[in-house]
Structure formats: C-alpha cells, structure tokens
Amino acid sequence: MATAAPIKLEPLEKNILRKILNARNAAGNDLKIRSQIVLAAAEKLTNIQIQEQYGIEAHRVATWRNRFHEHHELWKLLDPNLRPKMNEKLIRSWLADSVECRRESAERRNSHSTLPTLHS
Length: 120
Fold this sequence. Notes:
By secondary structure, the chain is mainly alpha-helical. The protein is 62% helix and 0% strand.
C-alpha cells in the first residue's frame, strides 16, 4: 500500500484554502472539495479518513492530495527570489482541473531532466 503524500502548509496557505472552502460561490464546488482534501491532509488525516469523514471518493482524495503535493513541492524548490508569490490565484491554479495541468504534470514525471539552475 502506497504512503499518502504529506502536506505541510504555512498559515497563509491554510488561510487561502479556508477562504476558498468557505466561499459562497456555488460554481466553485470542485475547488471547495479539493481545498477540503488538502486541509484535511495537512491535519495528517489518511485518505481513508478523509473519504469517511467528508464522503469524498477515495480515488478523488488520492488524486487531489497528490496533485497539490506535487505543485507545492515544485514551488518550494524554486529560488525564493524567483518563484511566484504565494497567493490565492496560485493555489487556485494548483486546484484547477485542466487538461494543461495534467499534461504538464505527466511531462514532469516522464522527464529525466532536473529543474534548471541559475548561475551568477
């Protein structure tokens, strides 16, 4: 059995996810569910516990936990002076379900190259 991806959030990130979760916009229901998954994962709940507690399908929990983790970890690897500032738009983009996001993720997984480094 695979180990669930660990999610460690800073207070700002938690606040952004809570804001998305509590938004009154019904059109953002998928983002709310994904935010709930990430927040619960950050509280160290297992995928099964999240499934049972929130009634979210197990495959959906695993998918969004892993996708968020992948984006978050890549963002943390970037030079702090060069990476985009943590904000709601950035987190929403990580929670978006777009073909482009999935294509980019697949390309990163299949790539044998590493992140480029900048030299002075």
